[in-house]
Amino acid sequence: MNRDQIEGGLRNIRGRGRSAIGAVTGRVRPQAEGAFDQAAGAVQYAYGRARDTADDLQRDGAHLVNEARHRGRAIAGDLQERGRTYQGEAVRRGRVVAARAEENKGTTLLLVALAAFSAGWLMRRGR
């Protein structure tokens, strides 16, 4: 509860009292002033509630932004770790293939020549 809510509530109660006194005494001016204070107090109280709500929303929004930032960093860290794992696996498998190619030079040369011939044959112009 903020100052506007408290002051608005008190002004509303004070206005009700003035209206009641004006009604009992039969005087129009205190009744009208009381009604005005009542309405002004209600508006001030409503403004205080709106301000409280806005403060709560701002606080909640800041919390959500911080939470999203934290989760984004966690996800980025996980993705970096996955990337390192995949990179390590690719390097390992590449070395295995290179070692096999080194062991079987004749077969590797034949496969490369066959792949080059096939690619050239597929890309030739149709006659």
UniProtKB/TrEMBL annotation:
Residues 4-55 form the CsbD-like domain. Pfam families: CsbD. InterPro entries: CsbD, YjbJ_sf. Belongs to the UPF0337 (CsbD) family. This is Uncharacterized protein YjbJ (UPF0337 family).
